[in-house]
Amino acid sequence: MIEQQRLVFITPTWAGDIDHFRVMRTSFEQSQFSGYAHYVVVQDEDLPLFSEFQGRDGLVLLSTKDVLPPIVEHRRHQAKAFANSLGRNVTRICGSLKRVFSRPLWPSYTGWHTQQICKLKLASELPYTTAIIIDSDVIITKSAVIDDFVSSDSTICFSDWLERKKLRGKVKNWINESDHLTNNQTKEPLVNVYFDTPFIINKSLLCKALADLEASSGKPWWNALLDRPPRRWSEFGFYKAFLIKNADSKTIEWREPTFSHFLYDTKNPEAVVQSVSSMLEDSNIHYITIHSQANGREYQDPNTYLNSILSLLSSSE
Fold first, then answer.
1. How do residues 34-43 score in pLDDT, each as one tens digit?
2. In which order are the strands placed within the sheet that holds 130-133?
3. Considering the entire predicted model, what is its pTM?
């Protein structure tokens, strides 16, 4: 009961991930976390699609209108309208222009960015000491335990260490931007490249990080983040960089999440279902991530495997 008062689960989602979310929430309700509060933030215009989840035990369903500052929510709507009107290719070009010329503004307010603001807003404001961010594409197995996230004498942060010189692509951008946001000049040779969920956020440390960002930027923390080049910053990267620079190393446990497994290739639905079925029976696996296809790559209907996985979960009740 004490841990239930200390921990909260947070999921930002939208219409494109509702099928993944349905599977994730089903697995959540069957896991040892079923008694914990679960805050779910949905894009305001998508909220009616999630009505089936209203009234679920412990689930608090919010819209972005409830969470985001009004000006950010307004600009999110504008960004979505522009992106829908202009199409993906022009949206990418506009994002590149924003990174080079700081204009136009709207690419910084798309759903990917505002979801990150929602995570930080809730994690820093809800009356819990620890927030567990869990995305829609995660399946929680019955082997998952709350001890994955807590320690009696330290704050846990999941970690996957890589030499800085080996950084490439988007992860390199996220690390470099996180160093900039936290004014980290040391450039440690090893960097933490874990950017997946579940992700643990300590409220007290997050609030200190956001306060420092406001002090250094002279603006609300969400503006400081959204003013940065689009798709170059990461909420998790910012938090980890603050921990590395500011937190007492004796109070942080950098824990390798060996209990998490990831599926990236979903071209063969039967193989995906077989893999998930096997993982659900493996007591060493606590979290299975099937990375969503609703991110602009070649589209594949996730229900070609999600419906079968949902049946697997239902049959195991």
1. 999 999 999 9
2. 59-63, 37-42, 7-13, 130-133, 199-202
3. 0.95
Site of tokens 């019955």: 142
pLDDT at 294: 44
Structure tokens at 314: 């239902």
Residue 280, amino acid: L
HEC readout, the chain: CHHHHHEEEEEEECHHHHHHHHHHHHHHHHCCCCCCEEEEEECHHHHHHHHHHCCCCCEEEEEHHHHCCHHHHHHHHHHHHHHHHHCHHHHHHHHHHHHHHCCCCHHHHCHHHHHHHHHHHHHHHCCCCEEEECCCCEEECCCCCHHHCCCCCCEEEECCEEEHHHCCHHHHHHHHHHHHHCCCCCCCCEEECCCCCCEEEEHHHHHHHHHHHHHHHCCCHHHHHHCCCCCCCCHHHHHHHHHHHHCCHHHEEEECCCCEEEECCCCCHHHHHHHHHHHHCCCCCCEEEECCCCCCCCCCCCHHHHHHHHHHHHHCC
For the stretch 249-306, pLDDT in tens is 779 999 999 999 999 989 999 999 999 999 999 999 999 999 855 444 556 789 999 9
d(CA 267, CA 96): 30
